[in-house]
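PROTEIN DESIGN WORKSHEET
SECTION A - STRUCTURE
LENGTH: 298
TOKENS:
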């Protein structure tokens, strides 16, 4: 990277100072502007979005502010790194900084989606225990609301939170089928929809709900085992996609450490950055293709 002069150090300090100023001062203004332009995606007329998955982790205001903060930090940090590597071309600096800002803008959204997906997976993993607990409670003579309350005490995690909300709505006067429908809206899934539909039909037409839940338990258990086997069979393909996408970056880092002068034209010339852009595009396409192949929807 070479020795820095006072001018280089001053430029880096200015870049980081501007980056920090943008995060703390400009970000709230940009976040508010983004919320005003996309308010319809966050707020619905019936207010049900207030119970949506996003509110389990953050609010739209904080999410928008986090997106703009990540964009400013990403763009400014990459600009400082390029300057540290003696990449002083305005075209390269502006283009790479804007690209980094766009990519970093999506990071908080992707993080939120991963948290929501993980919470959904934890909820789905306890559905078998939920159906068994309800069936056992019904056989013991308890009513359906009492069985839900008994089961929710021992579940923990997202299952306890969602069942507590269902019971809270029921105590406030909402019909239990309607409360269960709202649960399906908050935690969408085929197994939960099957369970709620069976409960609603049995409550309307009569019959032994415990026996119906026993059959649903077997169905959910078989589906879970099938999905586990499917993930095991496609694990190698997912690893190959990650390895293929990360191989050029690892190779570049190794070659740069071994022979810096040989690799410097790749990051200091416009032609080199065009080559890097082509590699990134091709690697992204290859990763998406492999990921699409190993992703099987059932």
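SECTION B - SEQUENCE
RESIDUE ASSIGNMENT:
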């Amino acid at each position: 990277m070479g020795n820095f002069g006072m001018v280089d150090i001053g430029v880096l300090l200015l870049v980081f100072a501007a980056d920090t100023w943008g995060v703390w001062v400009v970000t709230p203004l940009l976040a508010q502007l983004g919320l005003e332009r996309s308010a319809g995606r966050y707020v619905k007329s019936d207010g049900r979005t207030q119970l949506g998955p996003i509110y389990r982790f953050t609010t739209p205001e904080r999410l928008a502010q986090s997106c703009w903060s990540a964009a400013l930090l990403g763009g400014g940090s990459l600009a400082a790194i390029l300057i540290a590597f003696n990449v002083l071309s305005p075209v390269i600096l502006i283009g790479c900084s804007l690209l980094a800002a766009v990519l970093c803008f999506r990071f908080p959204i992707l993080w939120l989606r991963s948290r929501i997906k993980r919470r959904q997976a934890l909820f789905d993993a306890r559905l078998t225990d939920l159906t068994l607990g309800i069936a056992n409670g019904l056989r013991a003579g308890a009513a359906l609301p009492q069985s839900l309350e008994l089961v929710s005490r021992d579940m923990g995690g997202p299952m306890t939170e969602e069942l507590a909300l269902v019971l809270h709505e029921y105590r406030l006067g909402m019909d239990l089928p309607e409360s269960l429908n709202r649960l399906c809206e908050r935690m969408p899934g085929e197994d939960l929809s099957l369970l709620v539909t069976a409960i609603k039909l049995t409550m309307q037409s009569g019959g032994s709900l415990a026996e119906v839940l026993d059959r649903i338990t077997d169905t959910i258990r078989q589906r879970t085992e099938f999905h586990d086997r499917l993930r095991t069979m496609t694990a190698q393909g997912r690893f190959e996609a990650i390895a293929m996408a990360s191989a050029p970056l690892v190779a570049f880092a190794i070659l740069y450490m071994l022979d810096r002068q040989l690799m410097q034209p790749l990051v200091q010339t416009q032609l080199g950055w065009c080559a890097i852009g082509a590699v990134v595009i091709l690697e992204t396409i290859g990763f998406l293709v492999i990921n699409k192949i190993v992703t099987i929807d059932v």
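SECTION C - NOTES
The longest helix spans residues 90-125.
The CA atoms of residues 142 and 230 lie 38 Å apart.
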